Amino acid sequence: MTTAGSSSSAKARVAIGKNINVETYEMPWVEKYRPLLLDDIVGNSDTVERLKVIAEDGNMPHIIISGMPGIGKTTSIHCLAHALLGDAYKEGVLELNASDERGIDVVRNKIKSFAQRKVTLADGRHKIIILDEADSMTSGAQQALRRTMEIYSNTTRFALACNMSNKIIEPIQSRCAILRYAKLKDAEVMKRLKEICEFEEVKSNDEGLQALIFTAEGDMRQAINNLQSTWSGFGFVSADNVYKICDQPHPHKIRAMIRECQKGDIDSALARVGELWDQGYAAVDIVTTIFRVTKTVEELPEYLKLEFIREIGWTHMRILEGVGTLTQLGAMIARLCKLSTAPHMMTL
Ligand SMILES: Nc1ncnc2c1ncn2[C@@H]1O[C@H](COP(=O)(O)OP(=O)(O)OP(=O)(O)O)[C@@H](O)[C@H]1O
Ligand SMILES: [Mg+2]
């Protein structure tokens, strides 16, 4: 953990009225708890280990880190650059992200002139150009990078971060070492959340933290953001409060609905879907939550679970094709009930 004195802001919390906490000058926790050292990065240990070897060795190849949002790609690149350049970070690093202009002109002027610039660095170290969210660069700009990467490679190395590595043109991919970050495991996110809860003196219960993990789906940024929103909004992190903040259908209700489908109780199951619909959830949110919950319902026998998932998958596809109506969801419920009803009853 790299957050010396982090509980000071907790002390800066001022209570106004009953149970309402107002955070004074509170930084977003995602930034406050952004790791500064490679050692502090959670998860993807093999890949992080490779970065540590590069940091020790000093000879950084061009790299691309790709993976889902919020799992530590930008953070890792910054940690690596800090580890490599130390105090020379300011002069030795050029960072461009999607908020900067990154067309061909920028590659021709800004990137090239930085690559040509003379900067005194420790022996064996290189200047680093960080291109964050590189998948949003036009392919023209990427093309313009090709030769630049080669010509200046004895003094300058590139570090690219992106969500989809296939949006990076092949010639650049072939010049780089590609590191893939996987979604973070639930236990890894949980550990980090618990650490933050301790630092910030957040009151929470186990179900609340589990709900944060469920809604974040391996995205650390979302988990931390939702933790902060729930804590500052409600003053207690419980499952109900988390689902209110995240605006997702409550998995407990969905679970009950699946159990009703299993029993063939179509009226109750339809009533539940109707209730979610009336609350304004989109069909696609309902169906994705149903899918994710179905995977975890232990009471469902394996064969039935497989059949359920198949039906839910078809419905998901139809909804994505544009037919996201209550009737569509109702039809899915009917099919799920039919699947679990004993065959002899169907002939009645
Ligand atoms: N592996 C991790 N270990 C610790 N904290 C993390 C990790 N991943 C993400 N975080 C937290 O989430 C925040 C965002 O991480 P980061 O900016 O590195 O995400 P990213 O992978 O670059 O996402 P995007 O694809 O959206 O750019 C960080 O400030 C940090 O607080
Ligand atoms: Mg990023």
From TrEMBL:
Residues 59-191 form the AAA+ ATPase domain. The keyword Nucleus applies. The keyword Nucleus applies. GO terms for molecular function: ATP binding; ATP hydrolysis activity; DNA binding; DNA clamp loader activity. It comes from the Eukaryota. Its main location: nucleus. CDD domains: AAA, HLD_clamp_RFC. InterPro entries: AAA+_ATPase, ATPase_AAA_core, DNA_pol3_clamp-load_cplx_C, DNA_Rep/Repair_Clamp_Loader, P-loop_NTPase, Rep_factorC_C, RFC_lid. One of its GO terms (cellular component) is Ctf18 RFC-like complex. Gene3D superfamilies: 1.10.8.60, 1.20.272.10, P-loop containing nucleotide triphosphate hydrolases. Pfam families: AAA, Rep_fac_C. Keywords: ATP-binding, DNA replication, Nucleotide-binding, Nucleus. GO terms for biological process: DNA repair; DNA strand elongation involved in DNA replication. It is found in: Nucleus. NCBIfam families: PRK00440.1. Belongs to the activator 1 small subunits family. This is Subunit of heteropentameric replication factor C (RF-C).
